[in-house]
Specification:
This protein is an alpha+beta fold and 273 residues long. A nine-stranded mixed β-sheet has the order 2-5-4-3-1-6-9-8-7, with helices on both faces. The longest helix is centred in the C-terminal third of the chain and has 24 residues. The model has no long low-confidence stretch (mean pLDDT 98). Bound molecules: 1,3-dihydroxyacetonephosphate (13P) and zinc ion. The site of zinc ion has 7 residues, from loops.
């Protein structure tokens, strides 16, 4: 039974955890997972390989023939666990990476998330960097969104401000975070802009909308989103108390953390204020 597969259970658990943290009001957010060959084998006998192909709107050549587990468009994360067959489904990409077809799930007229172009282009960028990347997660992270109304929309500023809020941040996301200005969701343009950031980062913030995280397994991808959002929550509290910090973590402190935890931090984030 497909729904009993461990990766499907982890997918549902991750989405439910995000819902519990308040990141998925109504149908907000979406999640996609690129199956391992052994997982495709395990579910293949239950897939329907007769549905018509649908253009993705972008080409993801290096993902041709791959299978993905994806949340449904307009479906509620709140119902991932009690109505999984409506809330999620599997798609297969054609060999050219230009079309997909539904092979399981999305019951009662469902279809993959409207952000499928962003998900697949992000997967394509990440697979080219490291084939171990499997997960793209979009959440409506309250505090990260709030910060996009008050901070300059610059990678350097968001990275530095988030790093300062929790000592673990530069260790959890040493490459920093990308930020893009407001764009129409679900569009090809936002897919290109987001995947461009994914060349450098595992986190991309959409101004006044939400956050994308990329990762290799469910725990670390969720943990990445959670860590960045927690740092943003602290920053919102700090800014609510005072526009100025009385003290904070300094550039040399970050260099010391980098040495101690053997991570590389780009000096462009360690500017003097
Ligand atoms: P979907 O319901 O199509 O996944 O859209 C939700 C969303 O968050 C759009 O950015
Ligand atoms: Zn969204």
């Amino acid at each position: 039974m497909i729904l009993e597969q461990p990766f499907v259970q982890s997918f549902i658990q991750m989405g439910t955890d995000g819902y519990d943290l308040g990141w998925h009001e109504r149908n907000g957010g979406n999640l996609s997972y690129r199956l391992k060959p052994s997982e495709v084998e395990a579910v293949k006998s239950e897939l329907n390989l007769n549905n018509p192909w649908t253009p993705i709107g972008v080409q993801v050549e290096n993902l041709g023939g791959e299978y993905f587990l994806v949340t449904g468009s307009g479906r509620f994360f709140r119902h991932l666990s009690d109505r999984p067959l409506e809330s999620l489904g599997f798609i297969e990409l054609d060999e050219t990476g230009t079309s997909y077809r539904i092979v399981y799930g999305f019951e009662n007229g469902g279809k993959p998330t409207s952000e499928l172009p962003s998900h697949l282009m992000n997967h394509a960028v990440k697979v080219a960097i490291d084939p171990e990347y499997r997960i793209i997660y979009h959440a409506h992270t309250t505090n990260l969104i709030a910060l996009t109304f008050v901070l300059p929309l610059q990678d350097e500023v968001f990275t530095r401000e988030l790093w300062e809020m929790a000592t673990e941040c530069p260790v959890v996301f040493p490459e920093g975070v990308g930020v893009i200005g407001w764009m129409v969701p679900g569009s090809i343009e936002i897919a290109y802009a987001t995947s461009n950031k994914m060349k450098d980062y595992d986190l991309a913030i959409w101004a006044h909308h939400g956050t994308f995280a990329a990762g290799k397994d469910f725990d670390t991808t969720f943990g990445l989103m959670h860590t960045a959002e927690k740092a943003a929550e602290i920053l919102v509290k700090v800014l609510s108390m005072s526009p100025n910090k009385a003290q904070t973590i300094q550039p040399q402190d970050f260099r010391d953390v980098a040495d101690a935890f053997r991570v590389t931090l780009d000096e462009r984030f360690l500017y003097n204020k």
